[in-house]
Amino acid sequence: MELDKMDENDWKYHGEGNKSLVVSHLQHCRVLRLLKFPSEDSAHTRQTAEQAFRHILNIVDYSKYVMKPLLEEKYVHSGEVVKLPLDFVRQLSLKVQQERPELRCDKVMDTFSGCGLCLPNLTQLPLHHLRDHRPPICVEIKPKCGFLPFSRHITKECKRKVCRFCMHQHYKLANGKWKRLSRYCPLDLFSGSKQRMFVALKNLLEEPQNNLKIFKGGELIFSCKDDAKQQPELNDLIQHLRPYFSHINGLYNGHQPGKAVLNEFIQVICSALLSGGDSNRSGEPRKVHLSESRPHCEASPFPRDLLRNGNHGLPKDSVLAKILQVQMLDNLDIEGIYPLYKRVEQYLEEFPKERNRLQIDGPYNESFMDMVKNCPAEDDGSVEYAVGKVYQYRVAMTAKDCSVMITFAPDEEDEEQQLNLEKPRFTYSISILDLDPKPYEGIPHQYKLDTKIVNYYLRSTQAPP
Ligand code: ATP
Ligand code: MG
Ligand code: MG
Questions:
Q1: Residue 119: CB within 6 Å of ligand 1?
Q2: Cβ atoms within 10 Å of 90's Cβ, excluding its own
Q3: Among the atoms of ligand 1, which is closest to the Cα of residue 436?
Q4: Ligand 1 and 430: CB distance under 6 A
Q5: Is the complex ipTM higher than 0.90?
């Protein structure tokens, strides 16, 4: 990619989140991730080009030096900061505007700094031959927090029984963020039990919100509808998936083949999530039980009497085990972290110059990582302990907000042998994306939000008749 010869016609809108907008290259397996700002930001509150460059460099460093070593090399692609011609960025912004979903248009793409992040396009498989009529399918899951907090600092008992995602659903519904409750429960997905994972994925398909997207050949084919009242089109998805599971037509003889296609599809996702990360490994993986606390959420729709069945625990190398392990660095809960944050704040008030030494706002390099790893085990009253715990919390927050991408394509060898009767085999690759640092300043907001979500949940579900 020649940065001085960038042409907006080589790129197209790919997707966006709350913080960034992504465009993909029409020929190469590359994407550009550009920052977004609230549209009401005036010129003087906006970041300067230098600040924007530093911001993106922080994102790359954080991914490279902090998240990658914690999550495992093979899952993480940190990308590189690129300096783009301003004219290109402006043209691009105009080009993508009409493609953007309405619910994301409260923010505008950064067209001032010319800085962006260049990453591999993870919805594609680089070695996949284009001659196949079945392009790669990519499933993107934002799994959210997969455990129940176990900290002794927790003041509301319900936090030990109902997971954050399930509680947050009620609050989001009340605030108009979504029109229907999602029945997805992260604890089911992270359970390692095939049955529970199946139910979790099925519920994601029924109500994807911003937790599930599906791409085919790099094109988004399934996600939440812009109009929040509309149901996602499961029938369209089934039509897309049919050619990948052609053995089913022979098997089911027209009896609910659509449902069978979805079931097979969910099983393929499940197996990939339970594997060691790519299709070239085999053998029975070792299981881990990361959590001593209650592994089941009381708000999950999974039938209680079936909980004892099946093989529980995630394989140690699986992508979900890696993510869960990092999420669990949050072992004090926001209720235990907030007082430590205040300790750091008080210290910084007294010694403002220490802000740099403690790397509160980066750089996120190896010495930052040392503070994450070498935090004292017990609270000795020191600022080092407080800083270390606050950093562990921030790292955990990133792992609670990341996405997993599973990209798979039918096995090439398999295709010739296939008599349309055997179960298809897939080549796949798994990555973790969206590993941005969560700001230190966000902690007071997180504390307030936690209280609001819990109080709202208690009021809405335990109201006297
Ligand atoms: P969030 O609101 O979840 O924090 P964000 O603003 O931080 O999102 P990302 O999640 O990084 O942004 O990117 C937005 C979307 O763009 C993703 O959900 C994904 O569909 C797509 N995307 C991001 N990076 C890549 C990539 N490397 N390859 C393919 N698609 C990508
Ligand atoms: Mg995201
Ligand atoms: Mg993000």
A1: yes
A2: 15
A3: 7
A4: no
A5: yes
Determine whether the shortest distance from the Cβ of 403 to ligand 1 is under 6 A: yes
Query: Which CATH superfamily, name and number, covers 3-120?
Result: Inositol-pentakisphosphate 2-kinase, N-lobe (3.30.200.110)
Q: Is 18 in the pocket of ligand 1 (CB under 6 A)?
A: yes
Ligand nearest to the CA of 35: 1
- Residue 59 C-alpha to ligand 3 middle, in angstroms? 10
- Domain residue limits, the chain: 3-120, 137-328+402-433, 333-398+437-461
Long-range contacts, stretch 444-451, CB < 8 angstroms, 24+ apart: 444/338, 444/341, 446/334, 446/397, 447/334, 447/335, 447/337, 447/338, 450/334, 450/335
Q: Give the tens place of pLDDT for each residue, 27-56.
A: 999 999 999 988 877 666 677 888 889 999
SS3 (DSSP) at 212: strand
**At which residue do the structure tokens 């394509």 appear?**
409
Query: pLDDT digit string (tens) for 23-32?
Result: 999 999 999 9
- Is residue 170 lining ligand 1, measured as CB closer than 6 Å? no
SS3 state of residue 447: helix
Q: What is the DSSP letter of 97?
A: H
Give the max Cα distance, the chain: 75
